[in-house]
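Standup notes, protein team

Yesterday: finished cleaning the Poecilia mexicana set.
Today: Ig-like domain-containing protein structure.
Blockers: none.

Input for Ig-like domain-containing protein:
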Amino acid sequence: GSWSFMFLLPGAAAQTIRYRFGSTCAVRGSTVILPCYFTPLKSFSHGGREIPLRIVRVLWCKNHQICHKTTPSVYDSNSTAREPRFRYLGNMEANCTLQIRDIRMEDEGTFRFRMEADNSAGHFTNQAGVRISVMKLKSSSNRSEVSRGQTVSLQCTTSTCTFTHLEVTWRKDGHALPGNGSALQLGPLTAKDSGNYSCALRGNMETQSEPFSLQVEEEEEEEEEGWFWFHLETFHVIEFNSNTAGVDRSNLTDYLVYYLGAGNLVNRELSQKAKLSIYRSIFVPTLIHSHELWVMT
């Protein structure tokens, strides 16, 4: 960022207030520091004499151009009633840095610094100020729909501000996950990856995002049940009917018909559970010939 300067008088003796940057983004719940430095006026001319000046008051205000008189301030060196979230890290000589802790959405606005001397000739405010935009963290996905076996990247971002390096922690259903990057890679996905994911600035749970719900669908199995024709050796299923009537059996001399419950057929192959059930049921070789059919149940 660039420094923001403001001068009251021309020449080397002029007073200045310098903000390190003119605007910044802040994540709700985080701590923000506004670096600021000032050079006060040393003296002023009156009746042909140089009268020395001394700074007697420093203050920061929000959304006011001059910060003078009865303007509400977030920090005032003359006041004992101070908001604890706003801490003055500066002094009365050169440093005017302000720290804002646990920043809130209502803190969004322009902050300005003012110095006041023991004579009004030394009063000065840099009206440029520092604009703070306050954002909530947001966890989102690069895919709108996810399914089993895919890879997905979850992002921890804000709506409008871009952070070059954001150290965050991720949580799933309230439990901490490894890693501290703004992107969380998941995959190949299984149903166990389903859950609510949220992110927060590292070491500051006050900044936690609203949860992002990730739902991974289980691979669906065929739920048909009824009479299945399957090969006696390969167990490959070739025909299914709700009953055995009306089936041409002349070409099915190597096949057996058997009743199976739901979930026993996967990709037209009998499941291991179904095969074991059939082995246990058939104790003698089953013969199928001409138009005669032996049905084992």
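Follow-up from PR in the comments: DSSP finds one helix and 25 strands in the chain.
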